[in-house]
Amino acid sequence: MIVIFDLDGTLIDSAPDIHKTANEVLADEGLGALDLPTVRSFIGHGVPHLVGRLLGHHGISDEARAARMIAGFGARYEAAVGLTTIYAGAAGALEALKAQGHVLGLCTNKPVAPARAVMRHFGILNHFTAIIGGDSAPTRKPDPEPLRMAVAACGGGPALFVGDSEVDAATATAAGVPLIVHTEGYRKTPAEDFPHVAVFSDFAALPGIIAARAEALEAVG
Ligand SMILES: O=C(O)COP(=O)(O)O
Ligand SMILES: [Mg+2]
Q1: In this structure, which residues have their CB less than 5 angstroms from ion ligand 2?
Q2: What local confidence, expressed as pLDDT, does residue 124 receive?
Q3: Measured from the CB, is residue 84 less than 6 Å from ligand 1?
Q4: Which alpha helices (DSSP H) does the chain contain, by range?
Q5: Residue 54 Cα, ligand 2 centroid: separation in angstroms?
Q6: Where do the annotations place Mg(2+) binding (predicted)?
Q7: Which mutation among 12, 17, 45, 141 tests ligand 1's pocket best, with the greatest number of atoms within 8 A of CB?
Q8: 12, burial (CB in 10 Å: exposed 0-12, middle 13-18, buried 19+)
Q9: Is the distance from the beta carbon of residue 146 to the nearest atom of ligand 1 less than 6 Å?
Q10: Which residues are designated catalytic?
Q11: Atom of ligand 1 nearest to the CA of 42
Q12: SS3 for 29?
């Protein structure tokens, strides 16, 4: 079946690099640094939202400044992988899923270029048939369109979405795609509150969860 993954907080812990880059663009504007938990809480809606929250934290609402910071973030972030880690077992789980015959796609609000760069860095890029980023469609998650695009680009048909956040939960619901929650990401509310078909904290469990869903679907179909 088709399995679409979110990126930040699901496959990789990119918050430390996003935090570093955020503080660099704040410094460019003469604004003070924010701590990691604060910046982490701003991740998941894409770069324009992140920049809006950084400025909002300083009590500023200024479109020209925001545009400059979005451009600055893009220029600095693409090369920022040094502090990012891939979740333990994630690469092995992707390999196992491919070996089981599943088609893998990515649906992130991160722009495509840095998404591809970090996936290449961790050696997982080639597992993915389709990569939809925050700049691939006119809308971003939680709008269902990017997720629908990812499923279609993987050939269409029954799909599962693996994500970590409230944004992913809303996207899955809107698109009608069952959600599997990675509990070690950036969510702010209990995973149990998300409409989900399964939760996991350890990637070793994921291939089994997906195999069970695929078998159940075959039994019904
Ligand atoms: O907010 C972002 O830039 C990306 O977050 P996502 O990979 O969890 O969609
Ligand atoms: Mg995420």
Answers
A1: 6, 8-9, 164-165
A2: 98
A3: no
A4: 15-28, 36-40, 47-57, 63-77, 90-99, 112-121, 145-153, 166-175, 206-220
A5: 18
A6: 6, 8, 164
A7: 45
A8: buried
A9: no
A10: 6
A11: 1
A12: coil
May I ask the CATH architecture of the domain 15-77? Orthogonal Bundle (1.10)
Residue 123 DSSP code: T
Question: Does the C-beta of 110 come closer than 6 Å to ligand 1?
Answer: yes
pTM over 0.90: yes
What residue ranges of the chain have pLDDT lower than 50?
none
Query: How confident is the model at residue 99, as a pLDDT?
Result: 97
Compute the distance from residue 215 Cα to the ligand 1 centre, in Å: 30
Rounded to two decimals, the ipTM of the complex is: 0.94
Q: Where are the domains of the chain?
A: 2-13+84-220, 15-77
What per-residue confidence (pLDDT) applies to 220?
A: 75
Please check whether the domain covering 2-13+84-220 is classified as CATH 3.40.50.1000. Answer: yes
